[in-house]
Write a structure and sequence with these properties.
Blueprint (H helix, E strand, L loop, with lengths): L1 H20 L2 E2 L4 H12 L7 E6 L3 E6 L8 E6 L6 H5 L4 H6 L6 H15 L6 H4 L14 H4 L4 H27 L8 H4 L2 H14 L1 E2 L15 E2 L8 E2 L5 E6 L4 E6 L10 E2 L6 H8 L11 E2 L2 H5 L9 H10 L7 E3 L2 E2 L1 H10 L9 H5 L6 H35 L4 H29 L1
EC number: 2.1.1.364
GO molecular function, one term: histone H3K4 monomethyltransferase activity
Subunit structure: Forms a ternary complex with TBK1 and ZNF268; the interaction with TBK1 is ZNF268-dependent and leads to TBK1 monomethylation.
Length: about 425
């Protein structure tokens, strides 16, 4: 009697666990019903994908049947795509064509998104605009307090991203003013900085790559953007492979899977073999247990471990600079990268070994002493980064208590730093066994 109850309990637990891993179907929500109807009017046939909420990834798409490798996941007709062609055929088209100096394709798309969002009910794109995120978590949108907690290389790129949007806004102001005849309200209040930041993030995080022929009315920047309603609900996983391209025969953007996926599970695509810093910078999220992730070592950190009294130090740094060995030095799941070890080998060359720098650059072991010093220094740098990361994680947990409004953004940086810590601890283990 007791046995059978246990088995039922296990079954129930398994079922509960399965439903916990599966998504909660959201296709009954009004915004998705309207979006599907709108897509259908533009020639989108029903797919096996349904919008759903997932525990780990948030909003995504689940499959209503099991998928096999080589199957077509989704086919989105050209009419559903939002491109510069869409912008030119709207009421903005004439203004863009006559504007000098010509706008970039990115400026045109940003302008269109802001104008359509402002149009509200009158916009033919409203069903799509309604399901777009209201806010983003790209580094450009983070508060300075949060940006300060990012690893140095990412912090620098986040500041560059902020400046780039600022410059885009400044260079677009005159064009925005020229659109005044189209609007009852002042264009300054419609096309403000936060509206542009939202439009830029929408394009940067959600567009698919699609090459368009160059048009005279645009600047020479590549025109490679297309916003793909519904398809852009697919989340990224570093562990899947897909084939994605515009099919000239069917005039549709298609995604084919190279992985299997069981019924009711989330369907993933892969945005590319990106590490977590790149994912956060470009898309505003972090992937847990990302096999491509690594922790970067800045040139400043690297050089701290070598004596300024070394007579050949200047020459060694110059060699590394000339051969591009002061950038992209990393620790990964397999330990220190080949590039990091190579830089350490060159910097560890003794006065009597300096002539062998070419061999060291090729990754050859010049002497047992050199190799031991390089590995020992790698272990010290790794330990320094572990302590630095632990210190930042402590700062984050304190800030989360004090600043309720920053909680979501802090949680994102916490994920990035926790993942970094795991990689560094793994690297420390590997270095410890190799030193032994």
């Amino acid at each position: 009697m007791r046995k059978s109850r246990g088995r039922t309990g296990r079954k129930r637990r398994r079922k509960h666990l399965k439903s916990f891993m599966d998504g909660v179907n959201c296709s009954h929500k009004l915004e998705y019903i309207k979006l599907k109807k709108w897509l259908k009017e533009r020639g989108f046939g029903d797919s096996n994908l349904r919008p759903a909420e997932f525990w780990e990834t948030g909003r995504g798409l689940m499959t209503t049947k099991s998928l096999q490798a080589g199957e077509l996941i989704i086919s989105l007709p050209e009419k559903c795509l939002l491109t510069t062609g869409t912008v030119l055929s709207s009421c903005l088209g004439g203004h863009i064509m006559n504007w000098k100096p010509p706008l970039s394709p990115l400026q045109a798309l940003c302008t269109f998104l802001i104008a359509e969002k402002h149009a509200g009910e009158k916009s033919p794109w409203k069903p799509y605009l309604d399901v777009l995120p209201k806010t983003y978590t790209c580094p450009a949108c983070l508060e300075p307090d949060v940006i300060n907690l990012l690893p140095k290389p990412l912090k620098r790129k986040a500041q560059e991203q902020k400046m780039m949007i600022q410059e885009l806004f400044t260079s677009s102001k005159a064009f925005f003013s020229s659109l005044q005849p189209l609007f009852a309200e002042n264009t300054g209040t419609i096309f403000n900085y936060s509206a542009l930041e939202w439009a830029w993030c929408t394009i940067n995080t959600r567009t698919i790559y699609m090459k368009h022929p160059h048009r005279e009315c645009f600047s020479l920047e590549p025109d490679v953007y297309a916003l793909a309603p519904y398809l852009d609900l697919l989340n990224h996983s570093p562990n899947v492979q897909v084939k994605a391209a515009f099919n000239e025969q069917t005039r549709s953007y298609e995604i084919w899977t190279n992985s299997q996926c069981r019924k009711s599970q989330e369907v993933f695509i892969c945005y590319g073999p990106h590490d977590n810093q790149r994912l956060l910078l470009e898309y505003g999220f972090v992937a847990m247990d990302n096999p491509h992730s690594s922790v970067y070592v800045s040139a400043d950190t690297l050089l701290k471990y070598f004596s300024p009294l070394d007579k050949q130090r200047k020459a060694k740094v110059s060699i590394l600079k000339d051969h591009d060995f002061l950038e992209n030095l990393t620790f990964g799941w397999e330990g220190p990268s080949w590039r990091l070890l190579t830089a350490l080998r060159v910097l560890s060359l003794g006065a009597d070994e300096f002539a062998c720098w070419r061999r060291a650059l090729l990754g050859d072991v010049t002497s047992a002493r050199n190799e031991q010093q390089a590995l020992g220094t790698a272990a010290k740098i790794c330990q320094f980064l572990i302590e630095e990361t632990q210190h930042v994680l402590l700062q984050i947990s304190q800030l989360k208590r004090d600043k309720e409004n920053l909680k979501a953004h802090l949680a994102l940086v916490e994920m990035l730093r926790s993942e970094d810590l795991k990689i560094l601890q793994k690297s420390a283990e590997i270095l410890c066994s190799s030193n032994l």
